[in-house]
């Protein structure tokens, strides 16, 4: 059942690198990450790759396989023909540290810019009461394994370094939606989503949804509803009137 | 080359549930805290936990309380547990779960809006707070987001988000540094660039998880190389219960690349049944005497239990994990296994497809994507996989303190809580309860110090030489040595053991240790996995030696230690703990027997005499009788 596959793997560090060719054994039932590991064990012990759970649950082994963002552990070799050359490169949106490992600190920076869950001050632990149907919307977004492939694929930042400071990316815009839809969250997130985290940059091409290994409907269930909430706020005549009369900006409350 | 140096009050090694909870506690008590972890922040092995966190909240069955949970935990561990830990765990788990909710966790709900709880092996009532079958992810994300919330608070108060809590990710600690007897720091390297780093700190909390990467078939990720176990040993601390390793009964067996990956116990909790190649529900043949009155003896009764728990006993598929793993092992050995060497786990004939997808979404996804199996239409093939080590650093139950001043441990790396076998769901709650306690213990220890210990320069240079040695050798490929170690442990110190095989294993491990002295790493110091493995080998070999030595000495079968040359459980052995120690250079592991302290009066009287009789000696039983009479 085993055969020799042709792999082209991006190798390099310090801003330089190139695709290197390998011929490597493949056995039945294996995934791309297995083949990368076989290369480490038999040909290139210093080939760098991030991985952890090998079961699609931790989101560490994000890479681009034949140009498509994929988890290495969830890409079965049986989806390729035996004579196909498989090209494996690091995620393009983040700086390469070495080989397939990228510097994903952008994502941790953005995570810290989103204000945390803000419950009402008077609810004690143990007193929370929520219906299943009310938690399910946010639960979908909490399935996120932070593989960062949605941020990697998003054209707003994929080839536009200049947009990075003003754009949280689908992952963290979805985090805002998750908190906004949390039954107990009392923070006002609508204006800041638009003004500080760059929701307006998103033009719903759904690339993020397509690459999500958890099949979260990022665009339809998080980003579009969030855009609607922002619009409702902006064009709500009562809010507009209230703001005029009381000279109050909700984004700063 | 200059070594990067940082000063902290508390350094937590490991960023899984226990490490994060410990760090949050230390920071909340005003300590400057570092979290050091081998992977990216939020990727730790805790994400793999599926079923839930056991906490006797009584949301689904109001008869549940801490005493019932305590009894279940002790039974599951075959009464070898550190009873004080089991008590604290059962009492505090509900508060720890509720606290997560206040930090943003969204558990599945009951009809009246409370946290829903599910059934699990060995738990008398539905007890596991859960989110579908991805509870570990929810737990780690919530704790990660709590750390971020604290950083946001520090930014507001001090202008620096990392003023009081900072994550050093993709950084590996290779040595703990001491000043005399006390902890003074930790030495390590950045995985990303190979640069060296020293933390000057009076308190270290070990939260490094387990040792599964010493076995071929394991549910554990690459991080589980026994780092904390080895660091503790090398710093002079003791390990207990190292012979007890939990083989989870249901790991995937096919395809080969995913062999060992976990299939959650929730499949059985929600109605899934185990069948052999003859289609028989074989677990009915494997109910041990100690559990005879607690489990259904017919399929009809077992099936009724799912809807009427008051009038029926639970099906034997929900026996503690050690029992189920051994049963599967026996069926396969008897030639009644599935085509790929496991048994069948079937939920497809038990629940409607939509219900399976709703309750077990990640199992559905995992089998679909990795094995091309639709679990709503056909059975899974499963077999035992190395999952969890009950043994670990011997700690004080209340504070998590090891017997080296300044050293603390929590979670899987600590020992005692689970006795000889851990119940499913007790791990996530263990992380929270004892993570918090270890963080608080470390903070209190630092408060009580008159002066900060200082690491010696000699210790730092020795650690540096040790860390860089593999790069300076052109020796054997470390992957070879690692694979041989995994095979040795899997085959000779696995689920069923005997004196001859364990002795062989010890010889093999000894030879591998010699070879490990000579392994070398090609390439640079930048993100070099070959080099990292050379360093991890020391830890895996040391821990494997502890496991094998303790397994050879304990001449009985109990929980996660089964000797086919000593198949019975012995009341005398129940009173004995095996304690491992090593010299600072890691040569020569010694194992000593220690007496298990007797259970406190108010705890032992929570059990019936008839049940205790199955576990304790005549002498202990006489003490119990005297106690009850008073």
Automatic annotation (TrEMBL), chain A:
Residues passing through the membrane, by range: none
GO cellular component, one term: plasma membrane
Enzyme class: oxidoreductase
Domain of life assignment: Bacteria
Gene Ontology terms for molecular function: 2 iron, 2 sulfur cluster binding; 4 iron, 4 sulfur cluster binding; electron transfer activity; metal ion binding; succinate dehydrogenase (quinone) activity
EC number(s) stated in the UniProt entry for this protein: 1.3.5.1, 1.3.5.4
Keywords: 2Fe-2S, 4Fe-4S, Iron, Iron-sulfur, Metal-binding, Oxidoreductase
Pathway: Carbohydrate metabolism; tricarboxylic acid cycle
Entry cofactors: [3Fe-4S] cluster; [2Fe-2S] cluster; [4Fe-4S] cluster
InterPro entries, A to Z: 2Fe-2S_ferredoxin-like_sf, 2Fe-2S_ferredoxin-type, 2Fe2S_fd_BS, 4Fe4S_Fe-S-bd, Beta-grasp_dom_sf, Helical_ferredxn, SDH/FRD_Iron-Sulfur, Succ_DH/fum_Rdtase_Fe-S
A Pfam family hit: Fer4_8
Family annotation (SUPFAM superfamilies): 2Fe-2S ferredoxin-like, alpha-helical ferredoxin
GO BP, sorted A to Z: respiratory electron transport chain; tricarboxylic acid cycle
Residue ranges of every copy of the 2Fe-2S ferredoxin-type domain listed in the record: 5-92
Protein family: Belongs to the succinate dehydrogenase/fumarate reductase iron-sulfur protein family.
Protein name stated in the entry: Succinate dehydrogenase / fumarate reductase iron-sulfur subunit
Species for this entry: Streptosporangium saharense
Automatic annotation (TrEMBL), chain B:
Domain FAD-dependent oxidoreductase 2 FAD-binding: 9-428
Keywords linked to the UniProt accession: FAD, Flavoprotein, Oxidoreductase
Keyword Phosphoprotein: no
GO molecular function annotation: steroid dehydrogenase activity, acting on the CH-CH group of donors; succinate dehydrogenase (quinone) activity
Every Fumarate reductase/succinate dehydrogenase flavoprotein-like C-terminal domain range: 482-581
InterPro entries associated with the record: FAD-dep_OxRdtase_2_FAD-bd, FAD/NAD-bd_sf, Fum_R/Succ_DH_flav-like_C_sf, Fum_Rdtase/Succ_DH_flav-like_C, SdhA/FrdA/AprA, Succ_DH/fumarate_Rdtase_cat_sf
Active site feature: 321
Reported cofactor(s): FAD
Entry EC no(s): 1.3.5.1, 1.3.5.4
Enzyme class (EC, first level): oxidoreductase
Protein name per Swiss-Prot or TrEMBL: Succinate dehydrogenase / fumarate reductase flavoprotein subunit
Organism: Streptosporangium saharense
């Amino acid at each position: 059942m085993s055969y020799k596959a042709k792999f082209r793997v991006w190798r390099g560090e310090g801003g330089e690198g190139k695709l290197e060719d390998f011929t490597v054994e493949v056995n039945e039932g294996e995934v791309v990450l297995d083949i990368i590991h076989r290369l480490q064990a038999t040909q290139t012990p210093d080939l760098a790759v991030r991985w952890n759970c090998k079961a699609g649950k931790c989101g560490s082994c994000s890479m681009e396989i034949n140009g498509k963002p994929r988890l290495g552990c969830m890409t079965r070799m049986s989806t390729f023909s035996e004579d196909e050359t498989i090209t494996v490169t690091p995620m393009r949106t983040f700086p390469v540290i070495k080989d397939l490992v990228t510097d994903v600190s952008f994502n941790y920076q953005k995570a810290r810019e989103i204000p945390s869950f803000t419950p009402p001050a008077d609810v004690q632990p143990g007193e929370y009461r929520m219906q299943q149907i009310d938690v399910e919307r946010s639960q979908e977004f909490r399935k996120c394994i932070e593989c960062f492939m949605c941020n990697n694929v998003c054209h707003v930042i994929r080839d536009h370094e200049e947009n990075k400071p003003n754009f949280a990316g689908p992952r963290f815009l979805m985090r805002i939606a998750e908190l906004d839809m949390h039954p107990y969250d009392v923070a006002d997130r609508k204006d800041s989503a638009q003004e500080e985290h760059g929701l307006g940059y998103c033009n719903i091409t759904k690339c993020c949804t397509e690459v999500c290994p958890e099949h979260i409907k990022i665009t339809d269930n998080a980003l579009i509803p969030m855009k609607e909430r922002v619009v409702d706020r902006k064009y709500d005549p009562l809010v507009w009137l209230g703001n005029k009369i009381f000279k109050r900006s909700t984004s700063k409350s | 080359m200059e070594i990067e140096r940082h000063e902290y009050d508390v350094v937590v090694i490991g960023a899984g549930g226990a490490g994060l909870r410990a760090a949050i506690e230390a920071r909340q008590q005003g300590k400057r805290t570092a979290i050091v972890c081998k992977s990216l922040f939020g990727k730790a092995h805790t994400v793999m936990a599926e079923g839930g966190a056991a906490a006797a909240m009584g949301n689904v069955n109001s008869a549940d309380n801490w005493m019932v949970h305590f009894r279940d935990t002790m039974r599951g561990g075959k009464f070898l547990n550190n009873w004080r830990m089991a008590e604290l765990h059962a009492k505090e788990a509900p508060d720890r779960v509720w606290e997560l909710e206040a930090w943003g966790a969204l558990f599945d709900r009951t009809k009246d809006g409370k946290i829903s709880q599910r059934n699990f092996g060995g738990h008398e009532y539905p007890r596991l707070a859960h989110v579908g079958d991805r509870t570990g992810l929810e737990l780690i994300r919530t704790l990660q987001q709590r750390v971020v919330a604290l950083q946001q608070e520090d930014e507001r108060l001090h202008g620096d988000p990392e003023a009081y809590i900072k994550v050093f990710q993709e950084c590996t600690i290779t040595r703990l540094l001491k000043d005399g007897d006390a902890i003074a720091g930790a030495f390590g390297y950045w995985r990303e660039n190979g640069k060296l780093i020293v933390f000057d700190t009076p308190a270290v909390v070990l939260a490094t998880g387990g040792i599964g990467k010493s076995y071929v078939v394991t549910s554990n990720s690459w991080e589980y190389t026994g780092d904390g176990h080895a660091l503790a040993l090398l710093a002079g601390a003791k390990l207990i219960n190292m012979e007890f390793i939990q083989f989870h009964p249901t790991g995937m067996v096919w395809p080969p690349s995913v062999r060992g990956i976990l299939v959650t116990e929730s499949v059985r909790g929600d109605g899934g049944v185990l069948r052999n190649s003859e289609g028989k529900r074989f677990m009915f043949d494997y109910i041990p005497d100690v559990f005879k009155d607690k489990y259904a003896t017919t399929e009809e009764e077992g099936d009724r239990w799912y809807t009427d728990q008051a009038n029926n006993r639970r099906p034997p598929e929900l026996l503690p994990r050690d029992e189920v793993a051994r049963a599967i092992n026996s069926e396969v050995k008897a030639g009644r296994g599935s085509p790929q060497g496991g048994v069948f786990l079937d939920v497809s004939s038990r629940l409607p497809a939509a219900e399976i997808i709703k309750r077990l979404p990640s199992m559905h996804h995992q089998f679909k994507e990795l094995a091309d199996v639709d679990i709503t239409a056909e059975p899974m093939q499963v077999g035992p996989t190395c999952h969890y080590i009950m043994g670990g650093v011997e700690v004080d139950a209340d504070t998590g303190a090891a017997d080296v001043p300044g050293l603390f441990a929590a979670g899987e790396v600590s020992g005692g809580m689970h006795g000889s076998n851990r119940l499913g769901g007790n791990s996530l709650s263990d992380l929270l309860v004892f993570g918090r306690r270890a963080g608080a213990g470390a903070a209190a220890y630092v408060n009580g110090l008159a002066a900060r210990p200082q690491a010696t320069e000699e210790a730092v240079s020795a650690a540096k030489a040790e860390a860089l040695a593999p790069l300076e050798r052109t020796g054997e490929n470390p992957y070879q040595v690692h694979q041989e170690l995994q095979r040795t442990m899997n085959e000779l110190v696995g689920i069923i053991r005997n004196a001859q095989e364990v002795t062989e294993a010890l010889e093999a491990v000894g030879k591998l240790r010699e070879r490990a002295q000579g392994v070398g790493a090609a390439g640079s110091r930048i993100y070099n996995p070959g080099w990292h493995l050379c360093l991890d080998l020391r830890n895996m070999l040391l821990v494997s030696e502890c496991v094998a030595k303790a397994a050879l000495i304990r001449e009985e079968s109990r929980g996660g230690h089964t000797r086919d040359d000593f198949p019975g459980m012995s009341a005398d052995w129940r009173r004995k703990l095996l304690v491992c120690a090593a010299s600072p250079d890691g040569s020569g592991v010694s194992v000593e027997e220690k007496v298990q302290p007797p259970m406190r009066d108010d705890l032992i009287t929570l059990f019936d005499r008839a049940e205790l009789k199955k576990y304790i000696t005549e002498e202990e039983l006489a003490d119990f009788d005297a106690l009850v009479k008073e």
